[in-house]
Design brief:
mainly alpha; 87% helix
């Protein structure tokens, strides 16, 4: 990769990282705590990495009430429409800056899968929110929970991979300085 090409990719990474962090911070400090408050302290579906059973899902749907379910569908899902794509692009660029091309491409697929699972989770959760506690079937809840678990596993793998790549880059940098 030429120096100019690498500089352009690094600049694009910086912009994507900034946008990703702004959206993530907005969810972290505003929309998710608001959802938790609207639900009487219960965690939203997105924050249950190991999934949820039918009772827990219906309890959350009931606790949210119509106003909470509407906030989830509009505000939270609005933010969570931008976030998965931003995170996938940011991670893919980071991998391409830190890893050999073949490894970067494989890891980028993991980040893209995480985004795909997040969108499928959002779609399934939206169906639950529209159905409410009485209308959400066990099959709908099981499907949403499965997407949540797959998203959580893929995001974990993507982020651990990034941490490993950063540690290797730091180690190489330290070794080169000796």
């Amino acid at each position: 990769m030429t120096g100019r090409h690498r500089t352009g990719k690094a600049a694009l990474f910086g912009v994507c990282l900034a946008l990703t962090l702004v959206v993530y911070a907005t969810m972290l400090v505003w929309s998710l705590p608001r959802l938790r408050g609207l639900a009487g302290g219960l965690d939203p579906f997105d924050l249950r990495p190991f999934g949820y059973d039918a009772t827990a899902a219906r309890d959350l749907l009931a606790a949210l009430g119509p106003a909470g379910r509407d906030f989830y569908l509009t505000v939270q899902h609005g933010l969570d429409t931008a976030f998965p794509a931003l995170m996938a692009v940011t991670l893919a660029l980071a991998y391409h800056l830190l890893a050999p091309l073949a490894a970067a491409r494989v890891l980028a697929l993991v980040a893209i899968a995480a985004a795909g699972f997040d969108y499928l989770e959002n779609r399934a959760v939206a169906a639950l929110l529209r159905s409410g506690p009485e209308g959400a079937s066990d099959a709908m809840i099981a499907a949403a929970s499965r997407w949540t678990q797959l998203k959580s596993a893929a995001v974990t793998l993507a982020l651990v991979s990034l941490i490993v790549l950063l540690a290797l880059a730091a180690w190489r940098h330290l070794r080169a300085g000796r």
